[in-house]
Amino acid sequence: MATIIIHSNTLNFEQSKTLERKFGKLSAVHNHYRAEVETAPTHEQLVQLRQELELDINVLPANFDSKTVKLVISDMDSTLISIECVDEIADFINVKPQVAAITEAAMRGELNFEESLTERVSLLKGLETNALQHVYDERLTLNPGAETWIEGLKEQGIKFALVSGGFTFFTQRLQERLGIDFTRANVLEIEGHQLSGRVVGDIVGAQAKADFLIELCDQMEILMSQTIAVGDGANDLMMMKEAGLSVAYHAKPTVQEQADTALNYRGLDAILDFIA
Ligand SMILES: [Mg+2]
Question: For residue 260, with 0-12 CB atoms within 10 Å meaning exposed, 13-18 middle and 19 or more buried, which class applies?
């Protein structure tokens, strides 16, 4: 048996007809629909059905027990928030096209993340630090459903960790604003009132994200199977592979192919459907 999750509380005639033909009877659970099937659809069938019906449809992995979840870990840039912070910072010294091109290639998995970050940060050398506050105040917006998602987790006593290949300047502000339990990100080195173009200490890349998840599980004395990891980029995949359930959020194709589940239409609050 497999559980199918349809992340919508309203289905039009065509959508429900097609879904019932494929999965049998649908049942309404909180804010979404579910179906129990003998044989789970293949990844290709699922991808095709999502596109045809313009719905987020996922299969819960057989070994994932939603009732035991204790920790959700999420990427920041283009996952919890709608921007890539480093690209927006770069705009203040007119190097956004160069930096954004490197970011994009890194997120597709074409460049080593750590090297690409070193390169991007070096392009920020000399920038006045108040530009970071401008990015936070004027450009940083939460992705749809972010607050509902985090509140919903708190109500269920599930901890939330924010991990980022971006910068602590932003993770710390979001931690205070949203009441986030744990954060980890890169520290931009500052000299005087300017960025030095370097990161302090080791870079938080793909391995460091996975390590943070493992470290938190040890600290909380829980199993990896009790976690959900959410991300959009290639540097989230190592962390996502460690988690009990991985969610590709409006993610790059390579990430969607390797994650347990994907959301391409709904906001972050749809992640609550997995633990309803
Ligand atoms: Mg990201």
Answer: buried
pLDDT digits (tens, 9 = 90+) for 52-101: 999 999 999 999 999 999 999 999 999 999 999 999 999 999 999 999 99
The domains found in the chain, sorted by start residue, are 1-59 (3.30.70)
| SS3 category, 118 | helix
Residue 232 appears among annotated catalytic residues: no
Choose, from 56, 75, 236, 269, the residue flagged as catalytic: 75
Residues within 5 Å of ion ligand 1, judged at the Cβ atom: 75, 77-79, 232-233
Task: Reply yes or no on whether 77 is catalytic.
Answer: yes
Encode pLDDT of 194-247 as tens digits.
999 999 999 999 999 999 999 999 999 999 999 999 999 999 999 999 999 999
Q: Tokens at residue 212, please?
A: 């943070």
CA of 236 to the centre of ligand 1 (A): 7
Q: How far is the CA of 126 from the centre of ligand 1 (A)?
A: 25
pLDDT by residue (tens digit) across 146-189? 999 999 999 999 999 999 999 999 999 999 999 999 999 999 99
CA 241–ligand 1 middle distance (angstroms): 16
> How many CA atoms are closer than 13 Å to the CA of 263, on its beta-carbon side?
25
User: Is residue 161 helix, strand or coil?
Assistant: strand
Ligand 1: centre distance to CA 117 (Å): 13
β pairing state of 32-37 and 57-59:
unpaired
The CA 145 to ligand 1 mean position distance, Å, reads: 17
